[in-house]
Structures are given as C-alpha cells and as structure tokens.
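Worked example

This section walks through a single chain of length 133. The input is the sequence exactly as stored; nothing has been trimmed or padded.
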Amino acid sequence: MPNRVEKLSLLSEMIAFAKSDDSIKSVEYSFLLAVAQQLEVSREDFDYLINNPVNRMVLKSHSERIVQFHRMVLLMHVDQERTQQELAKLYNYGLRMGLNHESITKVLYLMEGFPDMMVPAEVLIDIFKVQYN
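Given that input, the structure is written out below as tokens.
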C-alpha cells in the first residue's frame, strides 16, 4: 500500500487528468472521491488537492503502478467520453510511470472490445505480466 505522500500524489495526478478538459464533471468527482476513500485519504485532504496539486511521485512497486494505470483508464471512461488528447495523456502517463509501451498500447487497443471500454483488472494485469516477465 502506498504511503500518505504517494497517495496524495496519485490522487493529485488523477485530479489533473480529470481537469484536462477544463472542469471535473460530477461523475468524475464521485469516482475520484471513491478512490480517495479507497486510499484512506480524508475528504478534507481530497478537497484541498482539487485546487492545490502536489508533486508527482512514481510508485516503487510495479503492481501499484499497474493498479494506478487501471484507475486512470477507468477515470477516462467514467464520463462515457474519450478524446484523442485523453488517450495521448494516458499513454504518456503510463510511460512516465515506467510501464512497458507495448503493454500500454495493447490496453488502449483492447479496451475498444469491452463494454463501456472498461478493461477488467485481471485482463490489464495479465497484459502487463507478459511484458514484465
């Protein structure tokens, strides 16, 4: 489990991603708040992050980076919209986290075939496991 600073960094990056189209939609806010609760970040800290981003950190654990990438994939689709700009940001985010570019490309390609373009966690993990081994 990430430490407090890592959790705030993860949420801050997700908030920035949600704001990429200039505002956070209510469905995105609800999703982000649920992630904050899952990470055991208080509502006060979460609300503070909305307007006060913290520095980016890369998680040490490969599995935690995969989980965070999956959260970003889910966040991108929670509003039922997807733009080329969001896809590019998500791809670059995965690269910055040190994830394999072939795996990222495969996830972004395969999501087209899933209902609501939501790649199941186990499928995403399997994709990254193949490249990691």
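What to look for: The chain has a mean pLDDT of 88.
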